[in-house]
Amino acid sequence: MSHAAVRPGLEVLASEQASLVRGRRVGLLTHPAAIDRGYRPAAAVLGAEAGAEVVRLFAPEHGVTGGFQDMVEVDERTDPVTGLPVVSLYGADESSLAPRPEQLDGLDLLVVDLVDVGARYYTFAASAVRSLPVAGSCGVPVIVCDRPNPIGGVLVEGEPVREGYHSFVGELPVPPRHGLTLGELCRFAVLERGIDVDLTVVPAEGWRREMWWDRTGLPFVPPSPNMPSVETATVYPGSCLVEGTNLSEGRGTTRPFETIGAPWLDPRRLAERLESFALPGVRFRPIAFVPSFHKHAGRVCGGVFVHVTDRERFRPVLTGVALLAAARAEDPERFAWRMEPYEFVADIPAIDLLGGGPSLREALEAGADPRDIASGWAPAEREFRERRLAVTLY
Question: pTM higher than 0.85 for the full model?
Answer without folding.
Answer: yes
